[in-house]
Amino acid sequence: MDLYREQILDHYKHPRNFGHLEGANIMSEEINVSCGDKIAIEILLSDDKKSITDIRFSGEGCAINQASASMLTEVVKGMTIVEVMKLDLPYIEKLLGTTLTPSRVKCALLPLEAIHKAVSSVR
Amino acid sequence: MFDAKKIQKDFPQLTRKINGERIVYLDSTATSLKPQSVIDKENEYYTQYTANVFRGIYTTSEEATAAYENARALTASFIGASTPDEIVFTRNASESINLVAYSYMLNEFQSGDHVVTTIMEHHSNFVPWQQLGEKRGIAVDIWGVTPDGVLDMGQLEKLITSKTKILAVSAASNVTGTITPITEIVRVVKRLNPHCLVLVDAAQAAPHMPVKVHEWNADFVVFSSHKMLGPTGIGVLWAKREHLEKMTPFNYGGDMISEVHIDRTVFKAPPHKFEAGTPHIAGVIGFGAAVEYLSSIGMENIRAHERDLVSYAIKQIDRVEGMHFLGPKDPDIRGGVFACTLKSAHPHDIAQLLNESNVFIRAGNHCAMPLHEYFGIVSTARASFYVYTTREDVDAFIEGILRVQKTFS
Question: How many helices (DSSP H) and strands (DSSP E) are in chain B?
Answer without folding.
Answer: 15, 17
